Amino acid sequence: MLYILAGGVVGLAVGLTGIGGGSLMTPLLLAFGFPLHIAVGTDLLYATLTKAGGVVAHTRIKSVRWDLVWRMAAGSLPAAVVTILILYLFFDQPEQYSGLITTTLGFTLILTSAAIIFRSQLVQLASSQRGYDENRMHLMLPFLGAVLGVLVTLSSVGAGAIATAMLLIAYPALRGINVVGTDIAHAVPLTFCAGLGHLFLGNVDFLLLLALLIGSLPAVSVGARLSKFVPDKFMRPLLATALCGIGIKFAFF
Which of 73, 110, 128, 240 could form a disulfide with 247 if both were Cys (CB 3.0 to 4.6 A apart)? Predict the structure, then answer.
């Protein structure tokens, strides 16, 4: 029941703020005492299943730029596979790479909080760019995707907020609804690939995953309905501050 409640709390927050559950769920599972590798692996598959419905919805309203999804995935999916292979080949036990995951989780949470706090500034910066060359951005996107793939595979965090920040900067003319749709459409295959890798490593707790989904799936819908009554200008800074504090703890302490 506790894990169902945790899934409900995270699902409600996702529905209210639109921010991905990974940045909330992994620290919460660690607070419950789950090993770091189990928290990350389980959260990746949790993110895949919770965001899959969003891909269907955004596909129906034609808000996904599939060309950008494929370009990001061309870098992020191979990077996820290589990261999993490195963990498998160079470490005998999960405890041996827990320090790497902890540090990556901390810095990724800090980056996520910065992306949330400075979202409006990123939009203004992107819109004021001069000499913008979309073809050059097309070439850079797989490399940005590769960085994202490593971060997400090691920490389960960043597929939402950090990817959104990348798209906002790289494609200033992209409409907000297209940024969201493209981000979600890319997050599902990335978290699925990384989640399968962690499943191969034995880092997924299926009973925990089921309990989290039972709580989160209905809560996301409730949160989305309540979001119109809760000012976004209060929720996002509050959430970003909490994530930044947690990130600093993991990164430096």
Answer: 110
The two three-digit tokens of residue 234, written as one number: 């209060």
- Phi first, then psi, for residue 132 (nearest 5°) are -70, 135
Give the contacts of 232 (CB within 8 A, at least 6 positions apart). 17
Encoded tokens for 117: 């706090």
Q: What residues make up the domain containing 169?
A: 2-252
pLDDT 10s per residue in the chain (253 long)?
889 998 888 888 776 666 666 778 888 898 899 999 999 999 999 988 888 877 887 888 888 899 999 999 999 999 999 999 999 999 989 888 888 998 998 888 888 888 777 777 766 766 666 555 667 778 889 999 999 999 999 998 877 778 888 888 788 778 877 888 888 889 899 999 999 999 999 999 999 999 999 998 888 778 767 766 766 666 667 667 777 877 787 777 5
Task: Give the up-direction half-sphere exposure of residue 25: CA atoms within 13 A in the CB hemisphere.
Answer: 36
Enter the tokens of residue 43.
């959260």
Yes or no: say if 179 and 167 are a contact pair by the CB < 8 Å rule: yes
What contacts 65, CB < 8 A, 6 or more positions away? Answer: 174, 178, 181, 182
- The total of structural domains in the chain comes to 1
